[in-house]
Amino acid sequence: MLILRFHPPLLFFLLLWHLLSCAEKTPKDISNQEIASSSDSTHSPVGDIRPYADLGGRISLVDQRGEMFILGDPQKRSALLFFGYTYCPDFCPTTLSRLVQVKERLGAKADSVDIAFVSVDPQRDTPEVLASYLAYFPIRVRGLTGTRTAIDQVTASYQADYALGRPNERGDYAVDHSTSIYLLDASGRIRHVFDYDATPDEIVDVLRLLWSSPMSESERVVDDDPLLAARNLGTYGCALLDAQAANGYRIWSKRAAQEDPSQSASSLQPTYEYGLDR
């Protein structure tokens, strides 16, 4: 029979090594692991949803029914808000499509969040045009427009931005605009800002976190969130709206298919009671 004999100093060394390898990790080690793990993912987990003191505000706008709406006032539900315009060939319809998926994933809680679409093109996006556009999406969306001054106030208070492009031969023009999605609580305070490419599941997770969290009296500022501050909410972009895109990619607009290309450019520049000049 084979008998294994261990030298006492060697046995002591092996026992000590085993105990050290099984020791609990220090908070420093855990923190480093979490940082490494979060850096591997596209979006870090959301933990802080305190309201932003330097984002948002109370501003009077007009909805697609022609009724006044005070953005920033307390509402019955939380809301997901983004900026765009009805002639947008890419960001806006895809964002709305993603928010349709958010509603689907929420199931019975779908009615617990509103969707708000703020136009940065009030010259063309009258309440009637907003109503026509939003009717093509299978969810209830509050379309908001207003005077150029009001739109500028809203974008400034949300640290967003936009820029009007040069009209083409038919009078169409693109509008570059910020593409973030803002989460507002029922009190009208901004609690989180999503990247344009946030997935429906990520948005749903943050909504559920908001709904399960107690009301927060504590506030923060954008600079408290290094990732958000570095993102620069004023960054914007939109595809060029050339004649082909104007005629073929406006999936929502029956009016576009009925227009006579020989019509003057002013036919695409409707006026509204707040009468604006671009």
Polypeptide structure, described:
Helix content is 33%, strand content 15%. The protein is α+β, with helices and mostly antiparallel strands and 278 residues long. The strands form two sheets. A seven-stranded mixed beta sheet has the order 2-1-5-4-3-8-9. It has a two-stranded antiparallel sheet with strand order 6-7. β4 (113-119), α4 and β5 form a beta-alpha-beta unit. α3 crosses α6 (200-212). The radius of gyration is 26 Å and the shape is globular.
Walk me through the topology.
Elements: H1 8-21, H2 27-40, E1 59-63, E2 68-71, E3 78-84, H3 91-106, E4 113-119, H4 127-134, E5 141-145, H5 148-157, E6 162-164, E7 175-177, E8 181-184, E9 190-194, H6 200-212, H7 226-231, H8 243-248, H9 254-258
Helix pairs in contact: 3-6
How would you name the CATH homologous superfamily? Glutaredoxin
- Kindly state the number of beta strands: 9
Give the helix/strand class: alpha+beta
The domain tally reads 1
What does the main sheet amount to?
A: 7 strands, mixed
Task: Specify the CATH architecture.
Answer: 3-Layer(aba) Sandwich
- As a percent range, the share of helical residues equals 25-40%
Q: What is the C-level CATH assignment?
A: Alpha Beta
Number of helices: 9
Distance N to C terminus: 98 Å
Side-by-side strand order of the widest sheet: 2-1-5-4-3-8-9
Q: Per the principal axes of the C-alpha atoms, what is the gross shape?
A: globular
Cα-based radius of gyration, to the nearest Å: 26 Å
